[in-house]
Design goal:
Elements: E1 3-11, H1 15-26, E2 31-35, H2 60-73, E3 77-80, E4 83-87, E5 93-97, E6 100-109, E7 113-115, E8 131-132, H3 135-138, E9 146-150, H4 154-163, E10 169-174, H5 183-191, E11 195-199, E12 201-208, E13 212-219, E14 225-229, E15 238-241, E16 245-247, E17 277-279, H6 291-316, H7 341-351, E18 358-364, H8 369-382, E19 388-394, E20 409-414, E21 419-425, H9 432-444, H10 452-459, E22 465-471, H11 478-490, E23 495-501, H12 506-511, E24 519-522, E25 526-529, H13 534-543
Parallel strand pairs: 1-2, 1-6, 2-3, 6-17, 8-15, 9-10, 9-15, 10-11, 18-19, 21-23, 22-23
Antiparallel strand pairs: 4-5, 5-6, 7-16, 12-13, 13-14, 18-20, 20-21, 22-24, 24-25
Helix pairs in contact: 1-2, 1-6, 4-5, 9-11
Length: about 550
């Protein structure tokens, strides 16, 4: 595997990781940020952020995108990959990933935390069939339906408010006798006409058939059991769980000190028990888990890491890095149709690595607005590389070399017309724009490094397999699954991987009764919800052989 050496590696691209990248970049440190999914962390799943100083009423995705662009402007590099193992002791920290081996003099662990499961009866059974953990990703599935939100903290309150945009009614179940969130947010929830709050109440059971049909709740003070049954005209309802988080610290067990709940222990300088190893954000214990505290963590960790790296280099006799040009000078906020100049500047370094011709074959209704939007996007992408070209066909045109079931859609083909097995149904905007760029890079360029064992597993699949990934463009978990599945398809002609935007193709969502994304559908039968690594996708494909 390729091995590269950096000054600083940051694991995680949430608010803490991106802030650390900004500060490290400004300090002229060669910095690499590794992320196993889409950039932005938990904040990218929050629709409205009203308490970040100086940025009133910002959306999470917008704020994270601005942080990402700022980190990039100072030279921070990004790599999307799966981290297999880390070695944190010693002079240089070593990270083995699906994209290669990386080493650095210091490392910041900013891997965050994942939503906790509550454990009520039916929770696992109906995940993706009505039970969800991301209102931004899945809220639109419950247009004019009843929704229950479980939790009494900031996340539960804020997501309950967001869900009122879609739901007919939102019922908030709080286990204690009061909210634990900010008073201003609690007051908004309590006064909202579409929200009912039930304190001292726990959900004990959810039931149904293919979708949720009912739920049982218990009053903690009286012991009274009440039942909710979905109205016949609605047919379904939703349950969203926001009851805290589990720190993503499994990779570091046995190396850094963890507390009883699995959070990484640090001192006031955010250094762990190992020299040169720092932790920032929700992966460490803290009284307040907010963007502003994650930002502070990232700044402190990067500053302390910079001091450590400078001393380490002086000790080893390594000259400091030359100052880099501020990349913001090379970008412009001026809009260029679908692609802004800032986006183009980020794409160009990737497209310069293309080695083979890639033909984007699309089809759709010529007078359709969405078809034209897709054509414009792909056409502007083709302007950025001589290796890219676009061929557009009318819907049902027999001359089209790729069979499409939904329109507008497009596929990646080689210069000789060979179909790659990669297909996009819909317009890959939002977070899925990353999937499109990675698809082009993997098919037309060198692609990211991949473990030999994974390549062997992919090559061993002998029977045709159709993989579809249902996504919403607001979901930051979806691109990880799309990128992994499409990479598999490129490496084995027996496999096809299709991204399907369920926000555009409602009949697809109804066919599979999807109420959560990402949803991995194999052979039109086996459905798996939530983030999936390449190895996990291969497990599903192999079981379907």
């Amino acid at each position: 595997m390729e091995q590269q050496i950096y000054d600083l590696i940051i694991l995680g691209s949430g608010c803490a990781g991106l802030t650390a990248g900004i500060y490290a970049g400004r300090a002229q440190l060669r910095t690499l940020i590794l992320e196993n999914g889409a950039l932005g962390g938990q904040a990218a799943t929050t629709n409205e952020i009203g308490n970040y100083p100086g940025v009133p009423d910002a959306s999470g995705p917008e704020l994270m995108q601005r942080m990402l662009e700022q980190a990039r402007s100072f030279g921070a590099e990004f790599q999307s990959c799966t981290v297999h193992s880390v070695q944190l002791a010693g002079e240089r920290k070593r990270v083995e990933t699906s994209a290669g081996i990386f080493e650095a003099y210091a490392i910041i662990l900013a891997t965050g935390a994942t939503p906790r499961k509550l454990g009520f009866e039916g929770e696992a059974e109906f995940r993706g069939r009505g039970v969800g953990y991301c209102a931004t990703c899945d809220g639109f599935f419950f247009q004019d339906k009843d929704v229950f939100v479980i939790g009494g903290g900031n996340s539960a309150a804020e997501e309950a408010l967001y869900l009122t945009r879609f739901a007919k009614k939102v019922t908030v179940l709080v286990r204690k006798d009061a909210f634990r969130c900010e008073k201003a947010v609690a007051q908004k929830v309590l006064s909202h006409p579409k929200i009912e709050v039930k304190f001292n109440t726990e959900l004990i059971r959810a039931y149904g058939d293919e979708t949720l049909k009912g739920a049982e709740m218990r009053n903690n003070r009286t012991g009274e059991i009440t039942t909710y049954t979905v109205p016949e005209e609605d047919g379904m309802f939703g349950i969203f769980v926001f009851v805290g988080y589990q720190p993503a610290s499994e990779l570091f067990q046995g190396q850094v000190e963890l507390d009883g709940d699995g959070y990484i222990q640090t001192d006031d300088r955010l250094e762990t028990n190992l020299p040169g190893v720092y932790a920032a954000g929700d992966v460490r214990p803290k009284e307040l888990r907010q963007l502003v505290t994650a930002t502070a963590d990232g700044a402190i960790a990067a500053t302390q890491a910079g001091t450590y790296i400078l001393r380490k280099k002086e000790k080893l006799g390594i000259a400091p890095a030359q100052a880099r040009k501020d990349l913001r000078e090379e970008t412009s906020a001026a809009s260029q149709g679908v692609l802004t100049e800032a986006l183009r500047s980020q794409i160009r370094p990737v497209f310069r690595k293309l080695e083979r011709d890639v033909v984007l074959v699309m089809a759709g209704e010529p007078d359709d607005v969405k078809t034209q939007e897709l054509k414009d996007l792909l056409g502007q992408l083709c302007e950025e590389s001589p290796h890219l070209s676009l061929r557009a066909y009318p819907k049902h045109d027999r001359a089209c070399p790729v069979a499409f079931e939904r329109w507008p859609a497009f596929a990646l083909c080689g210069g000789d017309g060979q179909y790659s097995g990669v297909k996009f149904s819909g317009i890959p905007g939002g977070h899925e724009f990353n999937s499109l760029i990675f698809a082009i890079y993997h098919y037309g360029g060198p692609g990211q490094e991949m473990d030999a064992a994974l390549r062997a597993r992919i090559a061993s699949i002998q029977k045709p397999v159709q993989v579809q990934i249902a996504v919403s463009l607001s979901c930051h978990f979806c691109p990880e699954v799309v990128i992994a599945a499409q990479r598999i398809a490129m490496l084995n002609p027996q496999i096809e991987a299709e991204m399907v935007d369920v926000g555009l193709f409602h009949e697809f969502q109804r066919k599979y009764r999807l109420m959560s994304v990402p949803a991995l559908i194999v052979q039109g039968k086996s459905i798996h919800f939530g983030p999936q690594s390449m190895a996990q996708i291969l497990d599903v494909i192999e079981s379907a052989q």
